[in-house]
Design a protein that fits this description.
The protein is an alpha/beta fold. It is built from five helices and eight strands, in the order βαβαββββαβαβα. Strand 1, helix 1 and strand 2 form a beta-alpha-beta unit.
């Protein structure tokens, strides 16, 4: 079974998105299916669910960039709520919209983020825990994934990690994130 790793295309006028750079760096790694999702409320969820059906992954690691992050953030919860400060790449600037009508307001990952942070620290990684993935496209895709897994009664671990924008030394940062991803696969893949 493959491990599905996702990043997002650039958005908001940026030329690059470090999460896409990470996905490209992991592409071709043994047992890793690395894919770049559209930064689109309309397009990200269907693309992600299609990839989940295609690969039937044993682990899903989703990455997105967060301008305010100073180190990687393990996202505990996805909210059933879209609210955008800026438009997505399709020009959609959703305001106070549910992702799925009638569904739970929030879904929590099955991954124990506190234990994962401790295990990563023991391997030399410093990460933060964030209690929700925001209300932009990253959260939208994360909610869609967790909702799909819950409705299909899947035990596949799924975790979203927000990463910094890495304006300085992006090559070094991607190498560090590649090591972090390998350690997450080692830690969480054993659960799958």
């Amino acid at each position: 079974m493959a491990i599905l790793v996702t990043g997002f295309e650039p958005f908001g006028g940026a030329d690059i998105n470090p999460s896409a750079d990470l996905a490209r760096a992991l592409s071709g790694t043994v047992d890793v299916a690395a894919e770049i999702l559209p930064t689109s409320f309309f397009g990200s969820g269907p693309r992600l669910l299609s990839l989940m059906d295609q690969y039937r992954p044993s682990l899903i690691l989703m990455f997105g960039v967060h301008e305010e992050a100073v180190r990687p953030r393990l996202e505990r919860v996805a909210l059933n709520f879209d609210h955008a400060e800026i438009a997505d790449n399709d020009g959609d600037q959703r305001q106070s919209c549910p992702i799925r009508d009638g569904a739970a307001l929030a879904l929590e990952t099955s991954v124990n983020v506190a234990a994962t942070r401790e295990a990563l620290a023991a391997r030399g990684h410093t990460v933060d825990i964030s209690h929700h993935a925001g209300t932009y496209v990253c959260n939208h895709a994360y909610y869609m994934a967790l909702d799909y897994l819950a409705r299909s009664k899947s035990k596949t671990p799924c975790l979203f990690i927000h990463i910094p924008a890495f304006k300085d030394k992006p090559g070094e940062e991607i190498a560090s994130l590649t090591r972090l991803t390998a350690d997450l696969v080692s830690l969480l893949g054993a659960r799958a």
